[in-house]
Input
Amino acid sequence: MTTTTLAVLVPLLPFLGAAAGLLLGRTTPGFVRPLAVLPPLASLVLAALVAARQGGDAAVDAHTELTPTGSVPIELALHIDGFAALVAVLVAFVAACVQIYSTGYLRDDPRYPSYAALVSLFTSAMLLVVYSGDLIVLLVGWEVMGICSYFLVGHYWETPEARAASLKAFLVTKLGDVPFLIGLFALATDAGSFRITRVLGAVASGGIDHPTVIALLLLAGVAGKSAQFPLHTWLPDAMAGPTPVSALIHAATMVAAGVYFTARLLPLFEASQAAMVVLAVMAAVTMAGSGLAALAQDDIKRVLAYSTIGQLGYMTGALAVGDRGAAVFHLLTHGAFKALLFLAAGVIIHAAGTNSLAAMSRMRGLRDRIPDAYWTMTVALLALAAIPPFSGFFSKESVLGAAEHVTSGHTGHAPAVAGWIVLVAGLLTAVLTAAYATRLWLLAFRGQGPEAPDHGRQPLTMTVVLWVLAIPSLALGGLAYRALPDWFDGRDLTPTPLTSVLGTGLALVGGLLTYGCWQRTTRLAAGTPLGAVAAHPEEDAGLVEAEAIATHEPAYGDIAYAPDPADPSRLLLGPLHRHAAAGFHLDAVYTALFVRPVQAGASLVRFLDREVVDTYVHGAAALPRLLGAAVRRAQTGNVQTYVSALLAGTVVLAVAVLLVATGV
Amino acid sequence: MHLAYPAVLSALLFCTGLYGVLARRNAILVLMSVELMLNAVNLNLVAFDVWLSRAARDTLHSGQALTLFTIAIAAAEIGIGLAIVLAVYRNRGTSDIDKLRDTAEGPETEGPGTPAAEKAEATA
Output
């Protein structure tokens, strides 16, 4: 088979798997698991084959026009360069891991068939985005992901948190997608084509008339999808979905799409200095803010959610300094270790029976219950904190190195100010990242107090996946940083000594600072007992998690916050802690700015409809109603009355005829 | 015999029947009154037939033929009528016409949503 055929099969197989799973899920439950697991695995093999054949050489391009569509043609086009080939391998790899893990995690879930089918559809949509060479085809995958995330985040739709979170995820990403769509149309009008290669050709020859406007419009969609400030608020709430879905959304699909899209069209963004500075500011605010918020979260998954936002900030930061190689490198390593972090967190939640770090810090011996999750999570957290030689170190240093390179101002493609913004925010975030990673590890695995409850052994499907993901988290960065420039733009990704020493040193400072605070505060834990534990050792992990999420707010008064004086982040953040736990009150700001005006408008419309429009309708109906009431009186139901009326009428008619006939 | 006698007799019969149809309550008596009216018509038909044939203006006796038709139709009608009355009586326990008011409109019934009110009206 040609490379093109293989590449077409990569997104097609999960799509067919999803369709078959939805059709057969109810009638033949035996087929559901194979249909869920095999298509992503086959896609992984095919994507790897495509990557091997492409090999970082010239991009594979193929296109066919299905039907003429007016002025600007829409074509089914493939554009596979080194970025697309490698990102597709990552997506298929994480999706296959998630599907295998889900067979254990949701093994007793009655809605497993539709869940597995939606995960497959999600994967297929992301693979379509990755391989597509046409912006409209890319948009199709982009929007299918939006609706899939809505369904999957709302998987536990019995709980109000999940319903609200799924709606929020959908609406916030759609808010970004409207300008995104307008931006795509403006871009295609300027370039005369939706094909990415032609658009980039037009950019190179200066054929785009309004690069700043288009870039900013596209950035809105990217910010929504990739959870960048100010449209990031849906991501922490999306933790109400099952843990494997979080792993999928955070590691491979959805949030990666925005970064990947920007990487593909980076020359367009580089054409506008203003767009690059906006991108840099967005990345810096996102990085620093999410780091502080992650430090104050109580829900283990919300810590990871904010950390995803921060790591995505690194990626957009790399894009803001014009180095898409570093951005996609970080996307790859982050995909591996963030998937591992979430899947391990799922195991921890199942074993501990709670998603609250405050409750976990009051349990002794949790790490002995789940040694697999303990060791793999340690690896993943070290990768997240960018400690050498774990993979996160190399990718993060490539980002910081790129930013440092730009600060000198010798590069034409990105303004020096963007480099400074990204570098400073990146170094600050390195401290914060190490701090919250250390805090999570200490609170989850170094708890003091009564023995952790025994919830039985974890299913093999869940633990094996953790070790499979631990390998790239450990080694991908170190092995790949020399080979990757051949696949990407050819720019060097080797860590520079200056940023390496600075970044690692700051990470160590953050970690040690947290450790010191933790040693001081952990004594307080015994004084304030906390913990709402949902124990279902016989049930599957999904049920435990759903219950843990549902009980967090009643138990602690807030979905993100626990009144725990033993939390080291209180000492670290001081008075900032309360605001950081609430995500710096951005949700409250949005409520005041958007939700309340919309509700006021809705009540005004309701008033106009009920009181104004309806009054005219009622008034117009009054006369017919009166006439009807008068006529209705004749309808007594007594047949003899009717016959009497008939007789009277006949007599009157007869008399009239007689009078006419006699000519009176 | 002069034509006036049967004509007056049939007019009287018809008026008696009309009164019965309009004023009696029992459905069977109403049916009987209908029969009276029909027979008044029959009497008229026969009388005028004889009167016309005497003047030799009508030799086909179409009046008498028509009377036979009326008698046959009246027999069929009374059969069906009595069967209906019997069925109504078995269902409702009464054959009083004043109490069979299912076709009445309620005072202010909004649409077809209140069959209970109509039923109550019918049995009241």
